[in-house]
Every structure is written in C-alpha cells, then in structure tokens.
Design goal:
Layout (H helix, E strand, L loop, with lengths): L1 H16 L26 H15 L1
C-alpha cells in the first residue's frame, strides 16, 4: 500500500512539472535604427556658411 501511495504521489508531481508542455521562447524583435539622409548629401551647411561669409564680406 505504501508503494502504491508513493507511486501515485510521484506521478502527480511529475505531471505538474510538465503541465505547460513545450513552448517556444518569446523573443523580442530587435530594433534597428534606420539612418536618415537628405538628398543634398550634407552640402547645405557649407553652402549656408559660404552665404554668410559672402554677405559679411560685401558690407
């Protein structure tokens, strides 16, 4: 009788350990920051600087 009770207890304990089944882990998607670029290719700032220098030189 003790063996039957022990076997029943171990069976219940083993079943609760696998109650959830096999589930694939949830992975968070990797966030990739996209770089933005203008069509001017970084030429706007030097042109504005040249315009300011030309305006200052003309006075």
């Amino acid at each position: 009788m003790k063996k039957l009770a022990l076997a029943a207890a171990l069976t219940v304990a083993a079943n609760t350990a696998f109650a959830g089944g096999v589930v694939e882990p949830v992975m968070e998607p990797e966030v990739v920051k996209a770089s933005t670029s203008s069509s001017a290719g970084g030429i706007i700032v030097p042109l504005l600087l040249l315009l300011v220098i030309a305006a200052a030189a003309s006075n």
